[in-house]
Amino acid sequence: MKGARRAVCLLSGGLDSATCLAIARRAGYECYCLSFDYGQRHRVELEAAGHMAEQLGAREHRIVKIDLRAFGGSALTSDIEVPKDRDPAAMQAGIPVTYVPARNTIFLSFALAYAEVTGAADIFIGVNAIDYSGYPDCRPEFIRAFETMANLATRAGGQGDTKISIRTPLIEMSKARIVRRAVELGVDVGLTRSCYEPDAEGRACGRCDSCVLRRKGFEEAGLKDPATA
Question: How many CB atoms lie within 10 A of CB 109?
Answer without folding.
Answer: 15
